[in-house]
Amino acid sequence: MTDGPIVIVLAAGRGTRFRTSGGDGSKLQADLHGKPVLDHVLAAVERSGLKHHVVRSADSDGMADSIAAGVRATATASGWLILPGDLPLIGEMSLHRVAKALAEQPVVVPTFEGNRGHPVGFARECFDALAALSGEAGAASVVQRYREQGRALLLPLDDPGILTDIDTLDDLQRVRDLLAVAR
User: Fold this and answer.
1) Is the keyword Magnesium in the record (predicted)?
2) CATH no., domain 6-182
């Protein structure tokens, strides 16, 4: 088993909403201040120092299929942080806090101002359930099962980046504007 959880970066989606909104090509390759959206996410993961695995294709394009593929590809991990590749403002400290919280509970869901975000953390005991996922629903069923058992932690974080995803051209412009203000 590897030390610490592995960040599974989901980069296999079709990006249908992005193209429907007028976007050209993949939202993960869309330019965000000189580099692709996905590169911003990967840079945060690399700054965190956590090991990671990028899922660029899965048997299906559903989020659950991508999660299952990533978990199966890293089967020796002690846990997983599931991070969609369209969250370019995610902070590396958020990744650390979720990873650390996995020592307390087998499922960790980060929140910002009461809203659930990513990455969602799963301990090793969740392997079978995660590896068997399929379809579009992500890992919501696994999270729900652990919440019902009182074994899922909602972890408040001071990071709006855990919620700030890019699904449309308007989302991309909003993130561009946020980054411009931060510079």
Assistant:
1) yes
2) 3.90.550.10
